[in-house]
Amino acid sequence: MARWQGKSKGTSAGYRIFVFLIKTAGVRSGYFLLRFVTLYYFFFSPSTSKHIVELYRNVLKFNKIKSLKGLYNNYFNLGQTLIDKIAIMSGVNAEFTFEHEGGEQLEHMIAGKKGGLLLSGHLGNWEASGHLLKRLNTKIHIVMYDGEDAQIKQYMEQVTGPKTFNIILVKNDLSHIFKITEALSKNEVVCMHADRFLPGNKTITTEFFGKPAQFPEGPFLLALRLKVPVVYVYGFKESQKHYHLYSTEIKTYDIQKGDTIQSVVAEYAKSMEEMTRAYPEQWFNYYNFWQA
Amino acid sequence: METAEIIEKINHFMVEEFEVELGTITPQANLRETLQLDSLDYIDLVVVIESNFGFKVKAEDFTGIITFQDFYNYVIAKVGKQ
Fold first, then answer.
1. Which helix (H) or strand (E) holds A190?
2. What ipTM was estimated for this complex?
3. How do beta strands A116-120 and A97-101 pair?
């Protein structure tokens, strides 16, 4: 997989099996089944594995053993975070604990009454802890590309029960632009991934671990154009039951003050780089991130 | 605001904001292709219209806009109603 194609691996049937297991036998049973799935990906998914090993070996300079161990843990962490997400959304979340560094930033954001844009990447599992946003007492919108499997999305909506979040799909009819601006004007929060893009999307090239990498222009354009408060958010699993969430300080970008799309993207890339160094086994982009 | 003045203003901000050559902007040219807009880039267009002409853009306004001429007609009609 040279570039993200807008589809995530996994099938609706796979999700159903895990949801059934988690609901009937608990999260640990899901983790047990996951061991076998992890081994399968470890041995039989060279197209995704090579990009993770590339990160560990050539970018982070891990030795061979550490890289292979990291690869196994990476797949296992991804599986665990998906299981945790399902468990939390289904209400089986009593056993998880959360520590939120910078959580007050989100409260300040809402107090500012200008809405807010939360940017995250496929690094850790911030969405799994998304229920913590409930305390903000405002509506949360998640912007997604319409390329992801509709069956999975539909099924996940069923699992979550009454919607906690509203999903804004990026479509050709431009309705997403107006839904985003309307949400922000109502002091609501809009969450977007800021590290992946689909073929045809505009990108900005910036340094990421010392090499040029492309980031989607869209989320940063929104931040600049709408001058809306922005917080980068991350969530990492630190033990079987514990998540560490991070919210950066509120940033407001303004072209008049010298901010450019290039500088804004570079700032985000820097932040993502720091977090990748801290949690390399939770880097979940299984394609060549540095492809020109 | 006169029609010619509106068109000139639109062309001016298109060149400024989207970094396209003035020569590529013709009434029959495809707006999206010429400006190389992707799905989120339209925010640029919406913000620029609202700040330059002072009216609110709605999602449904864009359904019939394909060429620059369609876009001129849309803005001219909206400005005329103000």
1. strand A189-193
2. 0.72
3. unpaired
Please report whether residue A97 resides in a domain.
yes
Question: What pLDDT tens digit does each residue of chain A (292 aa) get?
Answer: 455 555 555 566 777 777 788 888 888 888 999 999 999 999 999 999 999 999 999 999 999 999 999 999 999 999 998 888 777 766 665 578 889 899 899 999 999 999 999 999 999 987 666 656 766 778 888 888 765 545 545 555 555 445 556 788 887 777 888 889 889 989 999 989 899 888 878 899 999 999 999 999 989 999 998 899 999 999 999 998 898 999 999 999 998 899 999 999 999 999 999 999 999 999 999 999 998 6
Nearest CA-CA distance, residue B45 and chain A, Å: 10
Residue A212 corresponds to which tokens in the numbers above? 């040029």
Say how many CB pairs under 8 Å bridge A and B.
55
The answer to whether A218 contacts B63, with C-beta atoms less than 8 Å apart, is no
- Domain of A255 in residue numbering reads as 12-282
Q: Which two tokens stand for residue A183?
A: 């949400």
CA neighbor of A227 nearest in space, from B14, B39, B75, B51 = B51
A290: in domain: no
Cβ atoms of A58 and A128 within 8 Å: the answer is no
Q: What is the C-alpha separation between A154 and A167, in angstroms, rounded? A: 11
Q: Cβ contacts (< 8 Å) between B46 and chain A: which residues?
A: 177-178, 181
Tell me the pTM. Answer: 0.85
Which structural domain, as residue segments, surrounds residue B62? 3-81
**Domains in chain A, number:** 1
Nearest chain B CA: its distance from A17 CA (Å):
35
> Which residue of chain A comes nearest to B33, CA vs CA?
A200
User: Which positions 105-134 of A are in contact with B (Cβ < 8 Å)?
Assistant: none
Using CA atoms, how far residue A206 sits from A126, A225, B69, in Å, is 24, 20, 36
Q: How far apart are CA B12 and CA B9, in angstroms?
A: 5
Number of separate domains in chain B: 1
User: A165-170 and A140-145: which strand pairing?
Assistant: parallel
CB contact under 8 A, A221 and B58: no
